[in-house]
């Protein structure tokens, strides 16, 4: 929380100074101050990303493309909600956080890395099951475009740090000041 | 990708540091001088919730932060923080 740097936009982190400062100082009531509501948001985002990933199995091209666009747009909107629900701590640079928040963020990234390893393993397993024609035997693997699956993996990447913090951070107490 | 799975497996077997609690008299001192958490937070450059976490013993401060807080109350670190519970009335 030092003012060493006066950058307004943090390109690497993808946040603005103003957004982080406002978010951290925000004392207004919000549904996302409650851990249970944040967990519901995580479940919803996860469900949409999974739907996005498995949409490749839909054979009808028009239905598939509509579903891909709908899930992508929904996840994008909820991604910003997810970031805001943890006061942008997951994306904020060190200079805008205090030592406790930096520790929380860093611990969150460790868990996010572990989770991404697990999700990556699931993706690889599903791919091998498809190669062995255990999953989706009606469509040869060469006919399936995996772009949406790759995009869904990047969605997990983008959302995971905020997801971990939203899941682990306790509900905020009223009258903390 | 397999590398990240391997690293995730290794990391998952590493235990987190379980630190001993650090007791403090921040709330007592703050109330004594009539200061709000927000005011103290602004002086020591931390988020206002961090003061709440410190007071409840849910977060142990760094030495630098402990020194800054002690300076605000014009006292030394030992009389504000302890690894043993403070005796009441002292």
Structure report:
The complex is a heterodimer of chains A (177) and B (90). Chain A starts with 8 loop residues before the first strand and ends in a 9-residue tail after the last helix. The model of chain A has no long low-confidence stretch (mean pLDDT 89). Chain A has a two-stranded antiparallel sheet with strand order 1-2. Chain A is elongated, with a radius of gyration of 19 Å. Chain A contains five helices and two strands; from the N terminus they run ββααααα. Chain A has 177 residues and is mainly alpha-helical. In chain A, helix 4 runs antiparallel to helix 5. Chain A has one domain. Chain B is mainly alpha-helical and 90 residues long. Chain B has one domain: 434 Repressor (Amino-terminal Domain) (Orthogonal Bundle). Chain B is 54% helix and 4% strand. Chain B is built from six helices and two strands. In chain B, strands 1-2 form a two-stranded antiparallel sheet. In chain B, helix 3 crosses helix 4. The longest helix of chain B is centred in the first third of the chain and has 11 residues. The interface between A and B is medium-sized, with 24 and 26 residues.
Secondary structure topology:
The complex is a heterodimer of chains A (177) and B (90).
Chain A: E1 9-10, E2 15-16, H1 17-25, H2 35-54, H3 61-85, H4 99-131, H5 147-168
Antiparallel strand pairs in A: 1-2
Helix pairs in contact in A: 2-3, 2-5, 3-5, 4-5
Chain B: H1 2-12, E1 23-24, H2 26-33, H3 37-44, H4 48-55, H5 63-72, H6 77-80, E2 81-82
Antiparallel strand pairs in B: 1-2
């Amino acid at each position: 929380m030092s003012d060493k740097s006066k950058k307004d936009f943090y390109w690497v982190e993808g946040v603005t100074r103003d957004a982080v400062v406002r978010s951290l100082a925000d004392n207004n009531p919000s549904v996302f101050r409650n851990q249970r509501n944040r967990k519901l948001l995580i479940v919803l985002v996860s469900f949409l990303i999974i739907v996005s990933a498995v949409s490749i199995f839909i054979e009808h091209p028009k239905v598939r493309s509509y579903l891909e666009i709908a899930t992508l747009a929904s996840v994008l909107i909820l991604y910003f909600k997810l970031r805001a629900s943890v006061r942008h701590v997951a994306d904020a640079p060190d200079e805008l956080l205090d030592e406790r928040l930096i520790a929380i963020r860093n611990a969150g990234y460790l868990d996010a890395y572990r989770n991404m390893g697990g999700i990556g393993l699931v993706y690889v397993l599903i791919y091998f099951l498809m190669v062995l024609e255990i999953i989706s035997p009606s469509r040869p693997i060469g006919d399936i475009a995996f772009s949406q699956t790759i995009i869904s993996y990047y969605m997990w990447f983008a959302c995971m740090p905020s997801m971990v913090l939203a899941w682990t951070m306790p509900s905020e107490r009223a009258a903390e000041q | 990708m397999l590398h990240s799975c391997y690293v995730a497996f290794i990391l998952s077997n590493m235990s987190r540091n379980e630190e001993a609690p650090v007791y403090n008299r921040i709330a007592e001192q703050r109330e004594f001088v009539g200061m709000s958490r927000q005011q103290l937070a602004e002086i020591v450059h931390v988020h206002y919730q961090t003061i709440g976490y410190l007071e409840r013993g849910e977060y142990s401060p760094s030495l630098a932060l402990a020194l800054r807080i002690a300076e605000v109350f014009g006292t030394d670190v030992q009389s504000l923080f302890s690894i043993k519970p403070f005796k009441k009335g002292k």
